[in-house]
Amino acid sequence: MCDKFTLGTVGMCDRNKSCAFYCTHNKDLGNNKRYQLLIDTYCEGDFHEVCRRKGYEQEKGVAPLADLGPNGYNIDSLQRIY
Ligand code: SF4
After folding, report:
1. Which residues, listed in sequence order, are joined to residue 80 by a DSSP beta bridge?
2. Ligand 1, from 19, 49, 73: best to mutate by most atoms within 8 Å of Cβ?
3. The model's pTM
4. What is the pLDDT of residue 29?
5. Cα separation of 71 and 64, whole Å?
6. What is the pLDDT of residue 9?
7. d(CA 20, CA 24)
8. Is ligand 1 within 6 A of the CB of residue 64?
9. In the 8-state DSSP scheme, what is residue 5?
10. With a 6 A CB cut-off, is 42 part of the ligand 1 pocket?
11. Mean pLDDT, rounded, of the chain
């Protein structure tokens, strides 16, 4: 039997208040389905545990700019950044 509480921590990423991606793009999501999907699955869902922005910050020692999406891509250009 599959219990959703065994699959990981469901809920908001604890970095959301200081995250440039989230703070920039969480407004007016109805107009952009790409950002909405990423925020739903990463920032407000289980995938925040594997967010590429966290890996970038750990490796580089600085917080990434808002254009780095949690999946490692620039969401507008679809270019891989990290
Ligand atoms: S982009 Fe990553 S670090 Fe920022 S709020 Fe979303 S899951 Fe957290």
Report:
1. 73
2. 19
3. 0.85
4. 73
5. 13
6. 52
7. 6
8. no
9. G
10. yes
11. 88
